[in-house]
Specification:
The chain has one domain (about 5-200). Helices cover about 5% and strands about 60% of the residues. The radius of gyration is 16 Å and the shape is globular. About 35% of the residues are buried. The longest helix has 11 residues, at about 105-115. The chain contains one helix and 15 strands. It is mainly beta and about 200 residues long. It starts with a strand and ends in an 8-residue tail after the last strand. It has one helix at about 105-115, and strands spanning about 5-10, 15-25, 30-40, 45-50, 60-65, 70-75, 80-85, 90-95, 100, 125-130, 135-155, 160-170, 175-180, 185-190, 190-195.
Amino acid sequence: MPRGRYSLHDPHDHTPLGDEHFQCATGPSGWRYVSQITTPSGDPAGSVDLALDELGRPVRLELHAGGWQVRGAALDGVTWVRTDPAGEHAQEGNAAAHSFTGASPAFLVATSRLLRPASGAPATRVRLVALTAPVLAPRTLDQAWSLLGTETHATDNAPLVVGNYQVSEVDTGEQHPVHIAGDVVLAAPGIELEELESPPSGFS
């Protein structure tokens, strides 16, 4: 069960945004990721709880940020309920999308599991609902994912296989690399893996 810490920063000016303390695990029914997010000063800033089925579809998502809460799942596309900080209003939403995305590294692992692109194959396009701090307002976007290749690195335990992905934002044409080993993101725009207490889990 990998457990560790990501540092988060603005991908454009590298302003520190805080840390994400996480643990995740694979199982016969899929994958689960839970984390607590803190500000640069160490104050609580939110949380992520994401569960995927064996096909990489989100069967349960719960996000907290700035007092806002979103609960969602793959249902008629993706469906979610967003609740305001006062807890007085809850708005339900639905979109013809494949999954969710956001600032958490969990969503990069989730999308790679959902698409599972073959190495060197043409890019696979996917529609996602983005939920980002501070208010978790939903926004639908399209990305294209391709697996450029894999690299195997020797470790003290077992060989570490790293998938090198290229992610393209369809609306802007912006491209960026994402490096994933098992169920852990090693590096991506705005994300750095700072601590890892045990090796990544592999997917069957």
